[in-house]
């Protein structure tokens, strides 16, 4: 009885969803993304949740079209086999982007709405900064979108705001602590840190943890020696070593470098500082890599914010703020459920920078989605930038953190980008495309396929089969399309298929969906590229040579000394997160195709200990975008009668 | 038929709610606020919404215990008579606060859960900064609370985050515009502002509005003269006049004064700037005073951020950002529905500063609540600080904006504060109370009642009946309580009653509820204190003399010149929002009781044109709090197993 009941339950879980898909009636020419999004009425999100097997108490609805999903589901479905795990990556892109998000969305629309296979797309949440600065949606586009796209692109459920709040509380705690230590005696500091409340002095639990770390095995505040009091009360942060920056989710270039603490109340303790865009916060990377509330709390506590005057790392935990950060992030950790234009499920969760961080959506969204789709289902997740960066980090950082094994890589290419790699004129945002890109040019395509071949080879380093998805534009000719598919297969791709999701929705990606399903049946022989036990320098060199095709690397003295310091501090066995341009396989954005014989210069090395990686800087990385002279907010408006957003993309 | 149908409908709307109240079982001694909050399971917010007559499509649920209410309800119920409108204000408080929020919550618990009268509490949303800095809840306390209190005190539904995002987008737009104007020719600026897209140049609607404002009646970008191009393209902002500051919802004292723009990419255009706490943003004041989406958009566009080089005001509209700000604020404008410990409805919406802004919750929450309770119901709303500030602004600013007429003022007093006004020793946060406050002392109480009498008289200036609510502490003696009530009535209060909501919930405020109901039956003869057409100086003088009891005012030269400028710019007929300490009726915090014969110094005058008031500064006002040496985040933690917040108050 029990075992047959269990089997029944398992079958229920494996069952194909009875999903009510939303019908599309694609128009030609294709209207704007916002018009397409608005023309479709999404299902109520609680209806969608029920369709995909979520229990009523496993979701927290936010308005009509968004819901957070509770992590308790992972416990309920822990015996359920995972679905197939598909990564969407891309070739080296033009500055216009090659449509990885639309391919991701088109693929799940095809799988679920057209092939009746359970599937989930897992996407990154975009930063609001660029949304109001330079046009560029992240919800997909055309007839392959997440809807409502304005909800996706604006506050969503407040996760980035929570990150901002947590990040800045920690920043304020650092400077204020330095000020208080500089202006108070040991005794005064101690009396304030461990105050007399109703005649009693008690350590808080976070303070007891600090005592333990310091090797002081005492619990009665009155028994500490003067030396112990000083050790306990002083973090002795060296201001020049502070790496923790404040953040805002706004493109505010005037905050790239500034001097803070200039009010007389700060008594002269001013210092140079900067704001980064919120998604560059290490807390975003933590959110993306954590797999539970307990793990997130530990990671937040481990984040290193500076060194003390003896060169020892100072952490969030040392500042006593771990609990508060966790409280601020307690809802952000739950993935956000939305839907595609065809009514299939999507998770939107986390959106770390793809250079100073790993640029992948969250481990938790992928894990939950893999349970929900069931063994025969598919989870399609996306990596930022080209495969040399996003995919490499997906494998070496994200899969290492999650323990998940990918089944297929979908590599997105466009004729436009291939022509650029073949020697076409430069492609610049805001400038009309040259005729090479709007007319057939077989030679440029043929020459540019070298980049596609190289990216296929990179995926193969990890033992995972590759399906090339050619994201077709209306100016692409049949001969160009056929050539790309032919060359891709010759380079070792399992398959290569043209996709038309942008103009017709999931129906246009059915061939891709079929190819992915077949590739997943092949089985992958996934392996990491490097062993974590290797020295930091060796890990960097491995990536540079095997992935980028560099001859070697060259470390600046600064980079070398940071590597020495991190190794000495015990952080040498973390994976590597390269901060490199995405516009070339090399460090030089204008070197297209497959650059050779270059030496990759490492100018500096930094560490995100809570997120769990070391990030070498290849050149300078801007972590705070600016607004252009005519920001796109000039076009954005709200119709106050209909409450409809206008001009967003 | 039709008319009887209408009557039936009206009766339905007037009907007493069939509200399932939550039972309380008060413990003694009273546990911590968080423990009390946690011991009660709130109703699902959609159940509560249905109970109070909201239609399913009028709410947007955010999780289990919070919902946003749509403004469309105001249209549906526009023929419904408003309920009674009750303001809770206080005497001049000690730094510990005298419990206005608990009285507000206790009063609605009494009205609805114990007298079966429809009622709504309208509260301000607290800033997260102090929540993690210095202890002090805003959800009420003891057995008169809004639950879940951690939801109330943390992100809520993201309104303050939306304000932060909107505020900082505008700030970034200002500095970036100055940089772009400084580094580009008229022609280059124009070509970027009105770019050629697919061979066509077009003005956006926001740019057409700007042309109209400049008196340029053209719509074809190619027809502007060189002079017109320059006028259109250059705002010519004078950096030293910028009054728009960046904000964060964090207590970050190092941002009180700083130099921004020091990166080489900003080409030397650095300037001094500051961050304020987010709730000090003018956008918060706009949110609190607006009565519709259309009105909010107009107010946001009107906000003056600086002067140009000719001394003319530069607005958000001039920067082209009105639409984007409105889009960012489109959900924040909807009031947030929560509930009290006894399951009665509460709106939490807006929380502007009570000194540089008007310190009252939102007009929209009050308006919607007045419709929902029906003609026989009560809406209890709260004003920050003492009655001399919060109540005066409620009447002269908020009621003027809303057109609503208050029926009753509840004036909250405590024996503790009265003793302080009677000459008791000073009361300081974090320092144990002196024995004068914990033992009976009739003389101090009798002497201190002068402050209560004065605050009663202030309310009477506006023609509204006053009920004094004595918020009883366990150390108050019967004789002290009786004396306060006796003296209050003698000073003209309609009634004066002791309240015990903190220790027993609504049951402890039933006498107050009865008194309020009776007072509301008296009818109020509400009048404003001053005519808007009076010169700014006269309006300030009227408040200083009639409300604070000052002999006269004294303007600094700076204040005088600002008044002249605002008058000249056409802002002379706005109401006045005094930025004065709440710790004394005068400008000196240590002058307790009823100070006399003082001259009120006005050091500076500023303007919030979008919110719609002029704010004179009486002394310096800190708009960015700091963290103490031991911030309360030391006690805050999350139990990662149960997901429960610990140590929050």
UniProtKB/TrEMBL annotation, chains A, B:
UniProt xrefs under SUPFAM superfamilies:
P-loop containing nucleoside triphosphate hydrolases
What Enzyme Commission number(s) appear in the record?
6.3.4.3
Q: Does the keyword Cytoplasm apply?
A: no
Enzyme class, top EC level, equals: ligase
Q: In which pathway does it act?
A: One-carbon metabolism; tetrahydrofolate interconversion
Keywords, comma-separated and alphabetical: ATP-binding, Ligase, Nucleotide-binding, One-carbon metabolism
CDD domains referenced in this protein's UniProt entry, alphabetically: FTHFS
Q: Which domain of life is it from?
A: Eukaryota
| Claim: ATP-binding is one of the keywords in the record | yes
Q: What is this protein called?
A: formate--tetrahydrofolate ligase
Where does this protein come from, organism-wise? Acinonyx jubatus (Cheetah)
Gene this protein is translated from: MTHFD1L
């Amino acid at each position: 009885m029990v075992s047959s009941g269990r089997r029944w339950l398992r079958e229920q879980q494996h069952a194909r969803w009875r999903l009510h898909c939303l019908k599309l009636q694609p128009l030609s020419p294709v209207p704007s993304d916002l018009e397409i999004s608005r023309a479709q009425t999404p299902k109520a999100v609680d209806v969608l949740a029920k369709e995909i097997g979520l229990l009523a108490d496993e979701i927290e609805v936010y308005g009509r079209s968004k819901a957070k999903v509770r992590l308790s589901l992972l416990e309920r479905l822990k015996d359920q086999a995972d679905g197939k795990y598909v990564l969407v990556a891309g070739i080296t892109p033009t500055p216009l982007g090659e449509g990885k998000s639309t391919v991701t969305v088109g693929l799940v629309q095809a799988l679920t709405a057209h092939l009746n296979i359970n599937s989930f797309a897992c996407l990154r949440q975009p930063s609001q900064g660029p949304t109001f600065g330079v046009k560029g949606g992240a919800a997909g586009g055309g007839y392959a979108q997440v809807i409502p796209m304005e909800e996706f692109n604006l506050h969503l459920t407040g996760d980035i705001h929570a990150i901002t709040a947590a990040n800045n509380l920690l920043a304020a705690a650092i400077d204020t602590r330095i000020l208080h230590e500089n202006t108070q005696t040991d005794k005064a500091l101690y009396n304030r840190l461990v105050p007399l409340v109703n005649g009693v002095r008690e350590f808080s639990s976070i303070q007891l943890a600090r005592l333990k770390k310091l090797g002081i095995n005492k619990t009665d505040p009155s028994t500490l020696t003067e030396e112990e009091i000083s050790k306990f009360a002083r973090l002795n942060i060296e201001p020049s070593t502070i790496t923790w920056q404040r953040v805002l989710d706004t493109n505010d270039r005037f905050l790239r470098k500034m001097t803070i603490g200039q009010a007389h109340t700060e008594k002269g303790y001013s210092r140079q500082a900067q704001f980064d865009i919120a998604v560059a916060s290490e807390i975003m990377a933590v959110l993306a890599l954590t797999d539970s509330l307990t793990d997130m709390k530990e990671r937040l506590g481990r984040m290193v914010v500076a060194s003390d005057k003896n060169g020892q790392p100072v952490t969030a935990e040392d500042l006593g703020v771990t609990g508060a950060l966790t409280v601020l992030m307690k809802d952000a950790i739950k993935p956000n459920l939305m839907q595609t234009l065809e009514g299939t499920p999507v998770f939107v969760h986390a959106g770390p920078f793809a250079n100073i961080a790993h640029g992948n959506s969250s481990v938790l969204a992928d894990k939950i989605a893999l349970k929900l789709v069931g063994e025969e289902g598919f989870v399609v997740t996306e990596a930022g930038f080209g495969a040399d960066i996003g995919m490499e980090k997906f494998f070496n950082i994200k899969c290492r953190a999650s323990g998940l094994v990918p089944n297929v890589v979908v590599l997105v290419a466009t004729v436009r980008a291939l022509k650029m790699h073949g020697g076409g004129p430069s492609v610049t945002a805001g400038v009309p495309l040259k005729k090479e890109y709007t007319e057939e040019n077989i030679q440029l395509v043929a020459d540019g396929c070298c980049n596609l071949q190289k990216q296929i080879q990179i995926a193969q380093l990890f033992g995972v089969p590759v399906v090339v998805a050619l994201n077709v534009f209306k100016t692409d000719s049949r001969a160009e399309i056929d050539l790309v598919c032919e060359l891709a297969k010759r380079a070792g791709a399992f398959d290569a298929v043209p996709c038309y999701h942008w103009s017709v929705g999931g129906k246009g990606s059915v061939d891709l969906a079929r190819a992915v399903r077949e590739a997943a049946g092949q089985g992958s022989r996934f392996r990491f590229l490097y062993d974590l036990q290797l020295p930091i320098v060796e890990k960097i060199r491995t990536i540079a040579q095997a992935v980028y095709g560099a001859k070697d690397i060259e470390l600046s003295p600064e980079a070398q000394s940071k590597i020495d310091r991190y190794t000495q501090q015990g952080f040498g066995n973390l994976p590597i997160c390269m901060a490199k341009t995405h516009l070339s396989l090399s460090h030089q954005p204008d070197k297209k195709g497959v650059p050779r014989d270059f030496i990759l210069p490492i100018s500096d090395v930094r560490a995100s200990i809570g997120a769990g990686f070391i990030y070498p800087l290849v050149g300078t990385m801007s972590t705070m975008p600016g607004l252009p002279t005519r920001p796109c907010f000039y076009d954005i408006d709200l119709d106050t009668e209909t409450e409809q957003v206008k001009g967003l993309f």
